[in-house]
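Q: Could you predict the 3D structure of Dockerin type I domain-containing protein?
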Amino acid sequence: MRYLVACAVATMAMACALAVTSRCWAHNGGILIQLQDNQLAIGADSEVQGVPPDLSARVFTSLLSDEYYTQSLPSFLSRSPAPASTQEIPPGTSLYWDFLPMNIEGSVSNLWYWSGAGTTPESVRFTQLSQDGLNLGLYNVTDTGDNRQAVVTGTTERVEGGLLGVTDTFGDALRLHRHNYFVLDDGDGVVPTNVPEGVYLIAMQLRMEGVAPSDPFFVVAGTYDLISTSIESLDAAALWVEQNQQLLVPTGDYNFDGLVDTEDYSAWKQQFGSTGPFPSQGVYADGNRDGVVDLADYTVWRNYLGAAPAVGNSLAHGAATVPEPPSLAGLAMVLAVMGGQPWHVRRRATTLR
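A: Sure. Here are the predicted structure tokens for Dockerin type I domain-containing protein:
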């Protein structure tokens, strides 16, 4: 706890100083968390009174400090009264986070790195990590003073996080306002931290009991030495992620391995008929996020099997263009046949170029 408090003032000051030189990404403020149609909805909140949130935002930046490589931005907040088209999250609700793997050019990893050599989206080249022990995580600083951290290390796994926070009433304005810490570490347990300077990318998802989890969102974290001289590199990386976000975590990837393949069909079959809470047993097969795993979710998976949607397409657009799902009787026959015969071909999602 002392470690985090010691660097809090420095990181906040650095973020404020650099923000004025950067393109005004909405994600320099906070990640808004509300309810919308029985799902956790996220967006960007500038934390400026009178400025409406951007519920379409899925990319956020974090400006890491020079010695401790920590940052308490973006923050996490939930509002009461709720912004237009959303609903309030009731007081006393526990919110959790998870880290998700991402697919880039056929490779799957839950942590990606770019040197920052360039200032346009075309120059961005995320690669997998080569330094042993390096990890990026989120500290959960609870009201009891208990610090727990979940980290990603560049594996192909979905990593279950922890308790992000519990909603409460703060006057008439907020249900939640947390500044948990993103921490980049070299794994040797001593300061200073020795890591490659550049830009790091993680994917996250928020969840609460009884509703569908949030859409995936992304945190693009830049190290101090890079962003103090070239904030444009961080902007370029954020824009690249914004342009390619639908390919990084493909629709229909029900087991969070970065691929849309027959294992996702198995996850759907395992959860067929379930009504939540989700995720369950490490998978989440409610592809259309209507609160129940049914034939419509089979159609979502089938539509994306072996291919990812074009950049910029949304789940709603993809679901609207798929063929009608098979009848229940017909699907029962398909399940009976498929359940007894192995599928030998795993088809990868279309990858980024």
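Q: Anything worth pointing out?
A: Helices lie at 2-19, 224-227, 231-248, 262-271, 295-304, 315-321, 328-340.
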